[in-house]
Amino acid sequence: MSLTSTAGYVARRAAQRERVRILYRRALKDTLNWAVHRHLFYQDASELRERFEVHKHVEDPDTIDRMIEDGEAQYNKWRHPDPYIVPWAPGGSKFTRNPTPPSGIEIVYNFAINKD
After folding, report:
1. N or C: which end of the chain has fewer CB within 10 A?
2. In a 3-state reduction of DSSP, which class is residue 35?
3. Any idea where the Complex 1 LYR protein domain is (predicted)?
4. Following CA atoms 104, 91, 85, 67 in sequence, which dihedral angle do they give, to the nearest 10 degrees?
5. Is there a contact between 8 and 2 (Cβ–Cβ < 8 Å)?
6. pTM score > 0.70 for this model?
7. How do residues 21-76 score in pLDDT, each as one tens digit?
């Protein structure tokens, strides 16, 4: 192997590791959307981890690429249609609950101030 092919191989494997890491994290977070209780989530999370661990020792870059594409397709197929969004994040239930008033409307605060 020449130095350029070795560098290309190392770069490809690094990109594959990153794609697998991102896929695992997305799938793990989506598993939390499907689980009603934590004990169900823990069981599903360990099963997900086992599915990734089974293929940990695959070395062929083409096989790895194919497995990543299959995993991403399966994730997109089974992704939750209505994921949980924390209330204060964009799209959450409390995000911009009280929007700013339209321009031209004066806000008056009525506070009782004791001037003793």
Report:
1. C
2. coil
3. 19-74
4. -160
5. no
6. yes
7. 999 999 999 999 888 788 999 999 999 999 999 999 999 999 999 999 999 999 99
